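Lecture notes, structural biology module. Today: joint structure prediction for complexes of two components.
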Amino acid sequence: MRIKLTSIMVDDQDKGLRFYTEILGFKKKHDIPVGEYRWITVTSPEGPDEVELALEPNANPAGKAFQEAMFSQGIPIAAFEVSDIAGEFARLTARGVAFTRQPAPAGPVTIAVFADTCGNLIQLYQPNTR
Amino acid sequence: MLLRHDGFGRLCRARDLLRELRDPSPSIADLAREVQMSPFHFIRQFEAVFGVTPHQFRIQTRLDIAKHLLAMGHQSVTDVCMEVGFSSLGSFSALFTKRVGEAPSAYRRRVRAMAQGPGAVAADLTPGCLPLMGRLPPSAFGRPVRSFREA
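The predicted structure, tokenised, for the full assembly:
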């Protein structure tokens, strides 16, 4: 058993693919039409290529309700590790990304939170020891 | 940009307001006032957070509801058009066709044919992502196939 694939719900798959590749800088791995939607996955150029993040359509009302409730409560739905959180904060704000929390220490990590334009809050974290 | 806590809360509240179907429909400036923001900051910050302008968000929400109602199949296209707050069938149909890629009546016919029973919405329209996996080609999982020459 291995962790190789995880997913995140997006309110628009086109918009999601644009944000996760052009703004965040992930690489598109798959974009395959399946019925009404697409199977879209991205990988990190800094991480192992076989670990994929799927951009999942949130057409299901139950998924949408969960996503919106988490968002309104300010709770991130995923976290990505970075090695230079101040640099990422500067890079992403310059690209128009809206942060709800600027980099701030929290125990063993420094944390920042931004909106992914697809209905999610995403946390960035940098372990202090690196 | 960095949003303060109350600013973030206002944008979430605005998102809820944009979903409401009020008659007459409030202008974007009205909604900005309702969440105590200037129209300029409202539009700019909303777009940064949600990836679309408030106006685009409202249109998209209405088309999403229209798609759902059409898929349920109980109402005529005209009734659906009125229910989601469009006053003109012509402009509703034109916008729907532009965004969805087919006319409301064609969409209704197609997705009704996919449904399993009366009043049901086809499972294809509200999938979880992971069930879609079973319909992918093997190449979505295998490592890249290399020819002997490359090897």
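Point to remember: Chain A has one domain: 5-127.
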